[in-house]
Automatic annotation (TrEMBL):
GO molecular function: G protein-coupled peptide receptor activity; parathyroid hormone receptor activity; peptide hormone binding
Residue ranges annotated for the G-protein coupled receptors family 2 profile domain, each copy included: 36-118, 133-406
Family statement: Belongs to the G-protein coupled receptor 2 family.
A Pfam family that the UniProt record links to this protein: 7tm_2
PROSITE patterns in the cross-refs: G_PROTEIN_RECEP_F2_1, G_PROTEIN_RECEP_F2_2, G_PROTEIN_RECEP_F2_3, G_PROTEIN_RECEP_F2_4
The organism of origin for this protein: Triplophysa rosa
Its job: G-protein-coupled receptor for parathyroid hormone (PTH) and for parathyroid hormone-related peptide (PTHLH). Ligand binding causes a conformation change that triggers signaling via guanine nucleotide-binding proteins (G proteins) and modulates the activity of downstream effectors, such as adenylate cyclase (cAMP). PTH1R is coupled to G(s) G alpha proteins and mediates activation of adenylate cyclase activity. PTHLH dissociates from PTH1R more rapidly than PTH; as consequence, the cAMP response induced by PTHLH decays faster than the response induced by PTH.
Segments of skewed composition (Polar residues): 483-495
Transmembrane annotation, as ranges: 134-158, 239-258, 263-284, 304-328, 349-369, 389-409
Keywords per UniProt: Cell membrane, Disulfide bond, G-protein coupled receptor, Glycoprotein, Membrane, Receptor, Signal, Transducer, Transmembrane, Transmembrane helix
GO biological process, alphabetically ordered: adenylate cyclase-activating G protein-coupled receptor signaling pathway; cell surface receptor signaling pathway; intracellular calcium ion homeostasis; phospholipase C-activating G protein-coupled receptor signaling pathway
Name of this chain's protein: Parathyroid hormone/parathyroid hormone-related peptide receptor
Length: 525
């Protein structure tokens, strides 16, 4: 559990943090360090007389030591759970020999600073923290995945919602879903329960007792490499589709003549194509220069091939967010000029800001440059909970704002539900043989034979939910034409209700006249 949480965090926080590794990978790293130490010792031409000799103790390559002095060396970075800012210590006695521990007649060494993380993670309190963090991001990504699937189906099902703006929303939804799925797959492929327990039980003495490296079989890491590569790609595409949303909204506000259809393919290339390029470069370089076990291990500066483009997208999106907030504040001041109620202006601005924050991924900025190794205790827990909560639930927030709380989407759902209800009512009345049917305040005494004879027309009429059209003009509820009776009046008994069939294309064209900018403004305001 500890390994999963820290690995997840390292991928989402762009810092110089250590990567998690399995026991087999740890052993391979130890043997690489051992071979390097042996080469270093052989390369030494002369060691002063009376000095303690350099040697490999199974963990650290110790340099020569002056007689009667304490020798210190940095905790090795190739051991995952070590405190890499600490030091290990040995004592060289006056005879030029390393001091022995009286209890076991072995060379004495103090690894307490290095091994403090090993003991720290075994505490019950820390176990509870990691279990809680794992639960948070598992539940968060599961909820986000389910809500995004529903939102994507809704936007794809209703044809009137098919426009460039919603196409971009759907791409963003898909990127969030792929990000969540890749995280779950990566956890399953990289970390099994048995392997985690085995890694968490490893101690300093276990490391020293290793006598041979496990047989190297690169084929066993193919699935792991694919999982890590796909995870990085879908993570990058998610950041870049968030950037596309920011660019699109910014273009609608600041470009007078903006053809959204013209730029749709360009946005698609930015969202899916740009991440594919730098992730492919990273995979090629990694396979050529650092093809060691699974690619979840750190490979020095190679990580910046992926991290710099993602950091660039985050910073650009944050600047777009600040500029849009500035414009909204200016418009609110101009609209409410001369009014005394400034609190309402601030409330509107605050609402717009809160809506735009998850859409632009503003929360990435907060701890973006702060390594988790720089903090500890309560601040560390706050940072981890913050990252896990917002990263995992961001897709859920985006689905709510762009789909479930969108007035246009709600209107289409209501229309579809009303049409279905009216169609079922027609069928039920026809089967029962009744000569009347009702819908809302309207009552009709049309005969059953009439309904049957005009079946196609009746089915078409069940899809009409807008105001009644008379002489080519929309007659809204409450409107009374000169010399006529209000359309909301209930027909008298025996009076037949006649509704002319309207061409679908006309209704569709009227729906299309709503400006896209106004729809986006309603979303953020």
């Amino acid at each position: 559990m500890t390994c999963i949480i820290i690995t997840y965090y390292n991928f989402f926080c762009f810092v110089d943090a250590d990567d998690v590794l399995t026991k087999e990978e740890q052993i391979n790293l130890l043997f690489n360090a051992k071979r390097k130490c042996e080469r270093t010792i052989k390369s030494k031409h002369k060691i002063p007389e009376g000095y303690c000799l350099p040697e490999w103790d199974g963990i650290v390559c110790w340099p020569e030591g002056a007689p009667g002095r304490t020798v210190s060396t940095s905790c090795p970075v190739y051991i995952y759970d070590f405190n890499h800012k600490g030091h290990a210590y040995r004592q060289c006695d006056t005879n030029g020999s390393w001091e022995l521990a009286a209890s076991n007649n072995r060379t004495w060494a103090n690894y307490s600073e290095c091994a403090k993380f090993l003991a720290h993670y075994n505490q019950n309190q820390e176990r509870e923290v990691f279990d809680r963090l794992y639960l948070i991001y598992t539940v968060g990504y599961s909820i986000s995945l389910g809500s995004l699937m529903v939102a994507t189906v809704i936007l794809g099902y209703f044809r009137r919602l098919h426009c460039t703006r919603n196409y971009i929303h759907m791409h963003l939804f898909v990127s969030f879903m792929l990000r969540a799925v890749s995280i779950f797959v990566k956890d399953v492929v990289l970390y099994s329960g048995a392997a985690l327990e085995q890694m968490e039980r490893i101690t300093v003495e276990d490391l020293k007792s290793i006598t041979e490296a496990p047989p190297a079989n690169k084929n066993q890491f193919i699935g792991c490499k694919v999982a890590v590569t796909l995870f990085l790609y879908f993570l990058a595409t998610n950041y870049y589709w968030i950037l596309v949303e920011g660019l699109y909204l910014h273009s609608l506000i600041f470009m007078t003549f903006f053809s959204d259809r013209k730029y749709l393919w360009g946005f698609t290339l930015i969202g899916w194509g740009v991440p594919a390029m730098f992730v492919a470069v990273w995979a090629s370089v990694r396979a050529t220069l650092a093809d060691t076990e699974c690619w979840d291990l750190s490979a020095g500066n190679l990580k910046w091939i992926v991290q710099i483009p993602i950091l660039t997208a985050i910073v650009i999106n944050f600047l777009l967010f600040l500029n849009i907030i500035r414009v909204l504040a200016t418009k609110l001041r101009e609209t409410n000029a001369g009014r005394c109620d400034t609190r309402q202006q601030y409330r509107k601005l605050l609402k717009s800001t809160l809506v735009l924050m998850p859409l632009f991924g503003v929360h990435y900025i907060v701890f973006m440059a702060m390594p988790y190794t720089e903090v500890s205790g309560v601040p560390w827990q706050i940072q981890m909970h913050y990252e896990m909560l917002f990263n995992s639930f961001q897709g859920f927030f985006v689905a709510i704002i762009y789909c479930f709380c969108n007035g246009e989407v709600q209107a289409e759902i209501k229309k579809s539900w009303s049409r279905r209800t009216l169609a079922l009512d027609f069928k039920r009345k026809a089967r029962s043989g009744s000569n009347t049917y009702s819908y809302g305040p309207m009552v009709s005494h049309t005969s059953v034979t009439n309904v049957t004879a005009r079946g196609p027309l009746a089915l078409h009429l069940t899809t009409r939910l807008g105001p009644v059209t008379i002489n080519g003009h929309r007659n809204l509820p409450g409107y009374v034409k000169n010399g006529s009776v209000s359309e909301n009046s209930i027909p008298s008994s025996g009076q037949e209700l006649h509704i002319q069939e309207e061409e679908p294309s006309k209704n569709f064209q009227e729906e299309k006249t709503t400006p896209v900018v106004e729809e986006e403004r309603e979303t953020v305001m």
